[in-house]
């Protein structure tokens, strides 16, 4: 009975990540923030603020981290919700598990700022961060050795995964070469009218339903735009998948998103791109964010940490900093 009650509480909390036509946008954002914001960050993680590409960002630094490794986390929230504050606790856990700093951009949200505003903001953050990390890596290179490349991880969940893929599809090869991993939690991959999620007469899981997708998409972009890869990543051309970084997708077995994830993983594998689909039996959409109710949440993030730290995908090994210095010596606080 205790497990059943915990599961019900987890589902109730996770439903606050969803937005539909019956939900007031301000109320949705407020309730989401209240449910997922923590007063204290876990595991001794320290937070600072910085502008990358003129976009406000959180930088989360755990007690121990690889000085050359950094993650950009693109949050979900149905394109219309979510914030740095909402995702600080979750991303702090990721930072500790992956031994890296995590940057959370405060990108613009729909409906006030529809597509491609969020994509443009994330692109600006990536380019600015890449330049600074490349300079930092070059300055820290020992004499007689080649320049070190920054190890960048792109991570995202839900609708944030849609934005993350749009970013990756438009990056040049030299940028992609510095991305060691793409980590996607419960990604939204096909929002076209013909997709199974959008066209089925009735489809639902414990957290998401068709109305959530329809409302989110209608606020984010025009229906015709959902047929292009920047909104429906599964519809990407083969050329857009060239030089794609290794991908790790984690989700629950009870999600309506699972079939699209399987199809996306198959496409990447056919292109010779390393892709692992990690499916957790009986789990629901974004179960990783209900760690106070589900033991599997902790184990799942442990798995993400192992993937990131044990497989550098050809990026040369990097040293660990024992204390969080926040590494802002090259940066002037905005």
* Count, helices: 10
User: If strands are numbered along the chain, what order do they take across the biggest sheet?
Assistant: 1-2-5-4-6-7-8-9
**Beta strand count:** 10
**Shape verdict:** globular
- Summarize the helix and strand pattern as letters: HHEEEEHEHEHHEHHEHEHE
Q: What helical percentage do the residues reach? A: 25-40%
- What is the residue-averaged pLDDT? 90
Rounded to the nearest angstrom, the radius of gyration is 19 Å
Q: Biggest sheet, in brief?
A: 8 strands, mixed
Structural class: alpha/beta
Calculate the terminal CA-CA distance, rounded to whole Å: 51 Å
Low-confidence stretches: 313-334
Oligomeric status of the shown chains?
single chain
Proportion of residues in β-strands? 15-25%
Strand and helix map with partners:
Layout: H1 2-14, H2 25-36, E1 46-52, E2 55-61, E3 65-66, E4 69-74, H3 84-98, E5 101-105, H4 117-139, E6 151-157, H5 159-169, H6 173-176, E7 179-185, H7 196-199, H8 210-220, E8 247-252, H9 258-270, E9 275-280, H10 295-310, E10 320-321
Parallel strand pairs: 4-5, 4-6, 6-7, 7-8, 8-9
Antiparallel strand pairs: 1-2, 2-5, 3-10
Report what the structure shows.
- By secondary structure, this protein is α/β, with parallel strands linked by helices.
- It is built from ten helices and ten strands.
- The protein has an eight-stranded mixed beta sheet, sandwiched between helices. It has a two-stranded antiparallel sheet with strand order 3-10.
- The longest helix is centred in the middle third of the chain and has 23 residues, at 117-139.
- It is globular and about 60 Å long.
């Amino acid at each position: 009975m205790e497990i059943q009650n915990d599961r019900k509480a987890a589902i109730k909390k996770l439903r606050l990540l969803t937005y539909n036509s019956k939900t007031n946008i301000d109320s949705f954002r407020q309730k989401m923030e209240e449910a997922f914001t923590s007063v204290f960050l876990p595991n001794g993680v320290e937070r600072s603020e910085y502008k990358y590409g003129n976009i406000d960002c959180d930088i989360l630094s755990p007690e121990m981290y690889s000085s050359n490794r950094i993650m950009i986390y693109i949050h979900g929230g149905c394109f219309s919700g979510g914030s740095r504050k909402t995702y600080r606790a979750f991303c702090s856990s990721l930072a500790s598990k992956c031994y890296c700093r995590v940057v959370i951009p405060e990108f613009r949200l729909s409906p006030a700022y529809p597509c491609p505003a969020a994509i443009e903001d994330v692109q600006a953050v990536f380019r600015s961060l890449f330049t600074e990390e490349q300079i930092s890596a070059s300055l820290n290179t020992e004499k007689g050795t080649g320049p070190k490349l920054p190890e960048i991880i792109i991570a995202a969940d839900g609708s944030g995964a849609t934005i993350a893929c749009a970013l990756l599809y438009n990056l040049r090869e030299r940028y992609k070469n510095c991305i060691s991993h793409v980590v996607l939690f419960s990604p939204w991959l096909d929002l076209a009218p013909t997709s199974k999620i959008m066209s089925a007469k009735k489809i639902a899981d414990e957290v998401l339903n068709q109305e959530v997708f329809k409302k989110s998409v209608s606020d984010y972009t025009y229906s015709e735009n959902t047929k292009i890869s920047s909104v429906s990543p599964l519809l990407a051309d083969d050329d857009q998948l060239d030089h794609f970084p290794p991908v790790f997708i984690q989700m629950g077995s009870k999600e309506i998103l699972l079939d699209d994830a399987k199809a996306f993983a198959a496409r990447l594998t056919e292109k010779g791109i390393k892709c692992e689909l990690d499916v957790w039996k009986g789990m629901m959409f974004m179960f990783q964010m209900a760690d106070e109710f589900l033991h599997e949440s902790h184990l799942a993030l442990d798995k993400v940490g192992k993937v990131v730290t044990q497989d550098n995908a050809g990026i040369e090994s990097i040293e660990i900093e024992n204390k969080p210095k926040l590494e802002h010596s090259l940066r002037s606080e905005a």
